[in-house]
Amino acid sequence: MLQQHLVDAPSTTSWSCEGSAALVDIVGFTQLSERLARRGREGAEQITEAIGKSFESILGVAYENGGSLLKFGGDAMLLWFAGDGHAARACRAAVRMRHVLRAVGRIEVPGARTSLRMSRPSFIAALAAK
To answer: Buried b / exposed e across 79-91, counting CB within 10 Å, b at 16+?
Structure first.
């Protein structure tokens, strides 16, 4: 969304629109990372693959519901939903992301096993962002 704003109005210093923000936090990566860190490079590659697969799957759900990724940090994402029905689409996406994560979030590698889950998402509706 921010990149599109820069394309549409590159000389402006702010933007505002009505929408819903959803903060989605994935639980379980820290425990998995600690176990795999003991395995050195191989463990680092395994955690990178697990994170990539999980976030790719749930981001796809957000995009299908008109969401945009505003910020990614560690094991959390800040998503933005604008336009008609933004609050309902944000909630629908969160529910579907939870279901998808149940399927892709079961990670089993030699020496480590975990089930990722999504903590309760936090929502801010009808937010004017600048």
So the answer is: bbbbeeebbebbb
pLDDT tens, position by position, 44-55: 787 778 778 888
Cβ atoms of 94 and 22 closer than 8 Å:
yes
Residue 29's nearest CA partner among 91, 76, 82, 87 is: 76
- Residue 63 structural domain: 17-128
Residue 85 located in a structural domain? yes
Q: Which two tokens stand for residue 76?
A: 């959390």
The pLDDT value given to residue 130 = 41
In a domain, 36, yes or no: yes
Q: Which residues of the chain have pLDDT under 70?
A: 1-2, 121-130
Asked whether residue 94 is assigned to any structural domain, the reply reads yes
- The residues, any chain, with a CB within 8 Å of residue 8's CB and separated by 6 or more, are none
Amino acid at 97: M
Residue owning tokens 């990566």: 29
Amino acid at 65: N
> What CATH number does residue 70 fall under?
3.30.70.1230
